[in-house]
């Protein structure tokens, strides 16, 4: 028993270490093809002792990989622990479900006759490689949707560091799920080779719970050719995809990146200082640019400067605290409208001053501004959004986008507004509302899809937005994705690099270049093949002048979504449910047999 437990620990730790070495800082991406091999070997391990090693090892892997989240706030260590604990559940369930499936595939020779039923015979001939890959991808699909979803550290991201991203071009077919599926196939093939070698050696297998040889069914023996065909298919598809012609656009955007330290609740003075720093840098960069700039892009929340963009709806109602005069003289609806109108005029005036300074001494039109900015909408109720505004050449706000996917614990706490005692304790910033649906900004005839903050780290957000716009009018599909983020919270940790990897996969999946403007994060220009064309060094202020190339492809992923992965997710959930029901049934039978 001690020997088995030691092997289980070594195997689980090995998988975690291999995955970590494929990540930022090491980028040993070839290891990704065998990273899950030790974990898959545990599927032939019949002892329950594998559960603790697998869970503990992957908890450590996720905790160390995402430890940069703790820099955002002293209390973020608690959500970090919860997130690592949650993500580690999926590798554990992968091993449990695969082991249950494999029981009829790998059994002592004298017990082979127990496979009697038609279902068991069919299952014994189903390739384990396909089952394992489906189980892993099904779990990834579930975690991309459950509890608002998260895509960071998907298995497929481990290949984002490839110098020539040939093998990851299949993302435009199946999303990052397709790359994950491929990597599980290769890991199963490597595990099959190991198991076969131990069997032919004639010595007792240290991965079994007895000293008897194992019988390997056709389900295991097909893993190598399946993995080979899949890898070859991915390579040749990727090689062809990388040769697809793209056209140069007539639009030039300047991405502004800085590394301004931010606090969770910072005062108005600090917000204005940050705004002024971005304004000075932008004015200097545009005025000195040898080519005309059509639009400048500021990171998340940097355009606010303590002054959000206010919107008055037709059904505007004065909030109770203002109507009753709780914090000052009571306001009427006409007075509220006048205040909002004055605030909008001040906002436009400020924009015009910056644009005039940018174009001083030049005959070029002032560039538009795409900037992260708070948005407050007053209708029947007041709602506050984290948003993006498109400022036209005349300084007016031409379009807005409200962030759809909020950061759990950072921008909202589930159900807290439904608890009267806790509702009043919600700090500023945790009362944000979520926007609904995409936007498409028109910059001189060049259309861009705005994304904000974590939305590129939840892959389905950008893909769903592109699909929605494609269904509305395929001829007006955005030609690039502009993503604005503030990653200064994470203090130059690996979280920033993981965020960039997510954006690379989104660029391939949507077949659109991504222009990322960040504060303390990945200010980068990524092409529609997922290649980083240009990137600012970490911790440095600077600009990237991007003239993104237009890719005319509408990917299968955008057209039809993650259909294969969704089927696997449903089957994964069904399999987990059956396992739980069987567990309850077995406990009930044992109680009856014991007379309880």
TrEMBL record:
GO terms for cellular component: plasma membrane
Pfam family of the protein (one): CN_hydrolase
Compartments in which it is found: Cell membrane
Molecular function in Gene Ontology: N-acyltransferase activity
Regions that span the bilayer: 7-22, 75-98, 152-171, 177-198, 219-238, 557-581
UniProt-listed Enzyme Commission number(s): 2.3.1.269
Enzyme class: transferase
Key word Repressor present: no
Protein family: Belongs to the CN hydrolase family. Apolipoprotein N-acyltransferase subfamily.
Protein's name in the database: Apolipoprotein N-acyltransferase
Organism listed in the record: Allorhodopirellula solitaria
Gene name linked to the record: lnt
